[in-house]
């Protein structure tokens, strides 16, 4: 670029000519353009930074929401399938320890640990496995036995509640008689039943449970001798009436 006054060479950012000292007319325009460019650059940079911050903020929120939604979905799926998961875990354990479980059941039955048998039956859902079909009648009996035995062990406490809170003793008797009725039906083989479930060993165990129940019944109820002798052959209603009358006689 030449100085319009003396023709000397000028740079665009020189405000005055170095030879003649006159002002460079292009300098001012150049400075204005550079300032305008700088202002545009600053504005554009700020907009980009603001957009970036907004994007990052939205991205973070979106990511957090997505993670929470995914987590909730996983929790919902697990809750909906918790039974299936537990069943799968149990099945894996039972499949790997069938022989041990069968041996343990035999040991518990020999020791007359009927409540422990009921616990194993429920804990591992042994009714699902064919290998344990021969224990089906025993399992059913131990389940009923647990409720009957527990009710009779706590019978004195039940009577204390009757007296303390003026409850109807017949409600307790009805509940007890109902549980006894379930135990009473076990050990009776039908034509379609699996003979292995009614082996001598299992029948002895079921009869032992009934004997244990009768010991507690005689301790807690005043029953006639013929009622005691034929107790398990009575109808459900006859047993309930006998127990109800036995309680009344004890209270007199």
Give descriptors for this structure.
mainly alpha; 252 residues
Summarize the structure.
Helices cover 72% and strands 0% of the residues.
SSE blueprint:
Elements: H1 25-80, H2 82-96, H3 98-110, H4 114-123, H5 136-153, H6 155-165, H7 169-184, H8 200-220, H9 225-229, H10 236-251
Describe this structure in words.
With 252 residues, the protein is mainly α. It has a domain at 98-251. Helix content is 72%, strand content 0%. It is built from ten helices and no strands. The chain has helices spanning 25-80, 82-96, 98-110, 114-123, 136-153, 155-165, 169-184, 200-220, 225-229, 236-251. Helix 7 (169-184) packs across helix 10 (236-251). The chain is rod-shaped and about 145 Å long. It starts with 24 loop residues before the first helix and ends with a helix. 18% of the residues are buried. The mean pLDDT is 81.
